[in-house]
Amino acid sequence: MTYTQTQDSVTAGVPDEGDTRRVLEPDGSRVPDAELDPWIADLSPHELRALHRDMVLTRRLDAEGVALQRQGQLALWAPCRGQEAVQVGTAHALAVGDFVFPSYREHGVLLGRGAQPADYVLAWRGEEHSAYDHRTINVAPPQIIIGAQSLHATGWAMGAQRDGSTDVAVAYYGDGATSQGDVNEAMVFASSFRAPVVFVCSNNHWAISEPVTVQAKYPIAGRAPGFGIPSLRIDGNDALACVAAMRWALDRARRGEGPSFLEAVTYRMGPHTTSDDPTRYRDAAEVEAWAQRDPIARLEAYLRAEGMLDDSGMAEVARAADALAAEVRAACIGATTRAPETMFDHVYAEPHGGVERQKAEYTAYLAGFEGEAAR
Ligand SMILES: Cc1ncc(C[n+]2csc(CCOP(=O)(O)OP(=O)(O)O)c2C)c(N)n1
Ligand SMILES: [Mg+2]
């Protein structure tokens, strides 16, 4: 199973939705896919409801992140609204020992890995060098350098391979990242060494203000086979397709078949970050069209039609989402802000003359402001 573009879509240009694989239509109706279906046949009603619940929780916590930034409690937030299915669906397929190398937008992946309330916000508040202990949830710090995590994931995977483990590394990045050298170099290495790594590209149609059509004249999933890496182009707003594709990719990696590439076609409903105003560069009509393909409403419609979710179940999920948001807010506001000069403290494990000098200079600089607040 790998992505191949049809002649029709080649002549029509980059296909948007036409050739994505899905098992749920936007209205929630189930459609068969002979290759994806076996990977999700065992999903119990409990697991299906958990997928829905985690997506609702992700959306709620994302809204809280935006609100906290607007209220001056966070320096920045990168919203993930609209991308909940690919994040929650792929994370659901992971095993405990797998290791995730995320971008800055993967709040739903963190949730799927068991993040604690503070884990979502401390880095964006500037409180710690990293937001969490990466060994607790097997997630590397959120990567800001576009695409760099693809190399880290590939290196980790090559290490796991040499250890004889069946753990898999996963790199999450965006459509824009696929233009970076790092991502392409990672794919060459992963392919050459058959590294147990899955590349998950969330094609949310925009790299800040750059539309994906500028960077990709050919579907992104279609590039991977050129590296010798099988790929799938899936509907990134179909949580079940995301679980299925991820299980396929993880299984290949665990059986020693090497890397896989998933292009999840989705849409960034909000701004790039809280510093961005997308109305300056994109049409409201485009956003509205994608609102009709909402990932949460889609799974909800399916679960309701199957009798697995009702109003009281929905109300319970909404309460859980509000409770999580309250915990995240409390963890954010209650964080102990350390003195600015402590940022020099853990650069090296042992004392370092250069860092000590910088710390002394910076402390003297801060002392120059003493008494300012009183004036
Ligand atoms: C190496 C590097 N170049 C440029 C930037 C600035 N930058 C931050 S986000 C971004 C766009 C990334 O787009 P995409 O990969 O599609 O991910 P998305 O933000 O849409 O999730 C850019 C260019 C950066 N952080 N790192
Ligand atoms: Mg993007």
UniProtKB/TrEMBL annotation:
Keywords: Oxidoreductase, Pyruvate, Thiamine pyrophosphate
InterPro entries in the cross-refs: Alpha-ketoacid_DH_E1_comp, DH_E1, PdhA/BkdA, THDP-binding
Dehydrogenase E1 component domain mapped to chain residues: 53-338
Cofactor(s) of this protein: thiamine diphosphate
Gene Ontology MF annotations: magnesium ion binding; oxidoreductase activity, acting on the aldehyde or oxo group of donors, disulfide as acceptor
Record's keyword annotation contains Ribonucleoprotein: no
Lineage: superkingdom: Bacteria
GO process terms (BP): branched-chain amino acid catabolic process
Designated name of the protein: Pyruvate dehydrogenase
Organism per entry: Microbacterium testaceum (Aureobacterium testaceum)
